[in-house]
Automatic annotation (TrEMBL):
Cofactor(s) for this UniProt protein: [4Fe-4S] cluster
SUPFAM superfamilies in alphabetical order: Radical SAM enzymes
Keyword vocabulary terms for this entry: Iron, Iron-sulfur, Metal-binding, S-adenosyl-L-methionine
Family matches, as InterPro entries: Aldolase_TIM (IPR013785), Radical_SAM_PqqE_MftC-like (IPR050377), rSAM (IPR007197), rSAM_paired_HxsC (IPR024032), rSAM_sf (IPR058240)
Native source species: Rhizobium daejeonense
Name of one Pfam family that matches: Radical_SAM
Radical SAM core domain mapped to chain residues: 92-247
GO molecular function term, any single one: iron-sulfur cluster binding
Protein name in the entry: His-Xaa-Ser system radical SAM maturase HxsC
Top-level taxon in the UniProt lineage: Bacteria
Coiled coil, from the record: none
Length: 362
């Protein structure tokens, strides 16, 4: 697994520090850049404004252009941006007002506001980067998030963001801000699990969540926002996917894409796995019908986190290699599979003993 935390020798700092690493010893470092001085088998030394920064990584790992966040007193740095990856995400809060049965990042009560540091990091991102904003629920800190997006728009208009939100916290008064942030700069990724309010509310653990979501989808439509609806397939909602396809086609035809997703077995997803995992490698019919209905209505549909071989051949065109590179793995039978280059494989923590029954090299 690719490391998102790197061991460092602690620095005598009192505030979080954002720093971009550079390999080119002859470059003229900008403010917030550390330049490589020495490289050894399992650690590197950088010069940062006259001070030494030691990062412990194997020599095979590329760090050139990576952006780190170093917290006071900590012996590891957060690798916020990997310059050679398309899977960079800022976890802006661990607080959430929902309690979803499959949550991969169970919420915590405490919040540390690091928006200023995330802004600094984004400003150091490679040209044209697409950065995920995740939580927790990022819009619990809506004003801070909006300010972050507006500030970055001014300083780095080339960057785009995917913001994962439960859409419970938009208000009519946000219309102007959404307009200023811009339709093309942010894709709002919003989970919707069923067209039946009681099932959606039960899955997300919050009363009236469906009703609020429905209201706010209409608001996002009026704002001209870009929206990705996300539906994790579970035993609780699998049979109702065709009904949900009809609902989306009728009530939210403006969305950019409907992502039908497989479960990630970590956090509450792991805790509840045996009660919620729907083995779509042997029970794909409802997904198939939902795709047929949605595409017939002109919706774009994508299958996220489905191993390619778990999907019937006619529907593999809808799959997308979405598992982030740092938590992606392949199993023994993937060796020699002709589709390995286009398949996203499995989550690092996937347990095949309780997973897909019908998968194998194709
Ligand atoms: S065998 Fe492995 S690489 Fe091939 S399609 Fe299945 S999961 Fe993907």
């Amino acid at each position: 697994m690719i490391a998102l935390r790197l061991r460092i020798d602690p620095l005598p700092i009192v505030e979080p520090l954002i720093v971009r690493l550079r390999d080119d010893k002859n470059c003229a470092p900008q403010l917030e850049e550390a330049v490589l001085v020495s490289r050894y088998e399992d650690y590197r030394e950088y010069d940062f404004e006259g001070f030494g920064l030691t990062v412990h990584v194997p020599s095979s790992v590329s760090l050139d252009g990576d952006v780190l966040m170093i917290m006071p007193g900590q012996k590891s740095a957060h690798r916020l941006i990997r310059a050679d990856s398309k899977h960079n995400t800022f976890l802006v809060t661990e607080q959430c007002d929902q309690l979803c049965v499959m949550c991969s990042q169970p919420p915590k009560k405490h919040h540390t506001d690091l928006f200023a540091q995330f802004e600094e990091a984004a400003e150091l991102a490679p040209a044209g980067a697409y950065i995920g904003i995740s939580g927790g629920e990022p819009l619990l800190h809506k004003q801070r998030l909006f300010a972050f997006l507006l500030n970055i728009k001014a300083t780095r208009p080339d960057l785009r963001f995917h913001v994962l939100t439960n859409a419970q916290h938009f208000e009519p008064s946000d219309m102007d801000t959404l307009d200023k942030i811009g339709r093309d700069r942010v894709l709002w990724g919003i989970p919707l699990y069923s067209s039946r309010h009681e099932i959606h509310d039960e899955i997300v653990g919050k009363s009236n969540a469906f009703e609020t979501l429905e209201t706010n989808l209409a608001l996002l439509m009026r704002a001209g926002a870009s929206v990705e609806l996300r539906t994790v397939v579970m035993r609780q909602n699998a049979d109702l996917l065709p009904e949900l396809a009809d609902y989306i086609a009728t009530k939210a035809p403006f969305i950019n894409v409907w992502a039908i997703m497989q479960l990630e077995n970590i956090g509450y997803g792991r805790m509840n796995w045996t009660k919620i995992f729907q083995d779509t490698s042997v029970a794909f019919q409802s997904v198939k019908t939902a795709i047929n209905l949605a595409t017939a209505h002109g919706l774009e549909v994508t299958l996220y986190n489905f191993p390619l071989c778990s999907v019937p051949p006619d529907y593999r065109q809808f799959t997308s290699s979405t598992i982030s590179d740092w938590k992606q793995k392949y199993l023994g039978f993937c060796d020699g599979c002709s589709s390995r280059l286009t398949c996203g494989g499995f989550f690092e923590w996937y347990n095949h003993a309780e997973g897909f029954h019908r998968v194998g090299a194709i």
